[in-house]
Design a protein that fits this description.
By secondary structure, the chain is of the alpha/beta class. It has a single domain, classed as Ribokinase (UDP-N-acetylmuramoyl-L-alanine:D-glutamate ligase, 3-Layer(aba) Sandwich), CATH 3.40.1190.20. Strand 6 and strand 7 form a beta hairpin. The longest helix has 21 residues. The protein starts with a strand and ends with a strand.
Length: 282
């Protein structure tokens, strides 16, 4: 069974962060190993979240215990997300390097796939982490990534280039020097996700929805990463990931759910959706 190391938030009452990703990855038979950066009761968008950030001693101690049990050498996927301190970011960077350097037995042992979601902020909200955390993510984690998954605002901050539509998202993504999955890319009445690497670029778009629950970026990163572990092409992975996300958002609207109904949608989270339009950009 593939194993994923999730370095992100744990939010008990909201389907966001690493806790949401663990639920989604279970649909793909990917075993999650979650190391939380914060322990919250609810998403901060609802108000005071309750709980607290995980002290660096506890965060590093959990990683030490996982490594001591030989699990770094069994880790196929690492996803990083929300961090509460610069020290956590640096510890995550060391963990990624240790995962890559861990002994792997067998001729067909998989190279670990590193996904960095540079959680920093969003359009209309601006930066919602400490500026030092944002800088550390850019300097420590982004260079270690096989894939980065910023939203359009985060990509603009990282690249120093305006991101206003799919074409500009491709240009900015290619400045990062590694494959990128860029969410919240607007064009007309559609919103979409752009995948870009040095060889190809794709857009998966659908009509904008109202009152979308938080956590869509976290879910998108997990769904696309699952496709990459399966050896799928980026275009297929994009179509399936955005399709699963669109179906989950649609279900939330139908059921009037304030949170993403990741468990309730079941296997539909693994499927492409007829509501998603694919377009090759380059």
């Amino acid at each position: 069974m593939p194993m994923a190391l999730l370095l992100s938030s744990h939010v008990a009452g909201s389907r966001v962060g690493g806790s949401a990703q663990a639920l989604a990855l279970a649909q793909f038979k990917i075993d999650p190993v979650a190391v939380p950066t914060v322990l919250y009761g609810r998403h901060p968008g609802w108000g005071a979240p309750g709980g607290a950030q995980v002290p660096i001693e506890a965060f590093e101690g959990m990683l030490d215990g996982i490594e001591a049990n030989g699990l770094f050498g069994l880790t196929d996927l690492v996803i990083t997300g929300y961090f509460a301190s610069v020290e956590q970011v640096r510890a995550a960077g060391r963990a990624i390097e240790a995962v890559r350097g861990a002994p792997r037995e067998g001729a067909f042992a998989r190279k670990p796939y590193i996904v960095v979601d540079p959680v920093m902020g969003d359009a209309g909200k601006g930066l919602y982490v400490d500026p030092g955390v944002a800088q550390a993510i850019a300097e420590v984690l982004v260079p270690l990534a096989d894939l980065i998954t910023p939203n359009a605002w985060e990509l603009q901050r990282l690249s120093g280039t305006e991101v206003r539509d799919p074409a500009s998202a491709v240009r900015a993504a290619r400045l990062m020097g590694r494959p990128a999955l860029v969410s919240s890319v607007h064009r007309g009445g559609e919103i979409g996700v752009v995948y870009a690497d040095k060889r190809e670029a794709w857009l998966a778009a659908h009509l904008k929805a109202d009152n979308v629950p938080s956590g869509t970026g976290d879910l998108l990163a997990a769904l696309f990463a699952a496709a990459m572990l399966e050896g799928q092409t980026p275009s297929y992975g994009l179509a399936r990931a955005v399709g699963g996300l669109a179906e989950t958002v649609a279900a939330a609207g139908i059921w009037q759910s304030p949170e993403l109904p990741i468990v309730a949608v079941g296997a539909k989270i693994k499927n492409a959706s007829p509501t998603v339009r694919m377009e090759r950009l380059a």
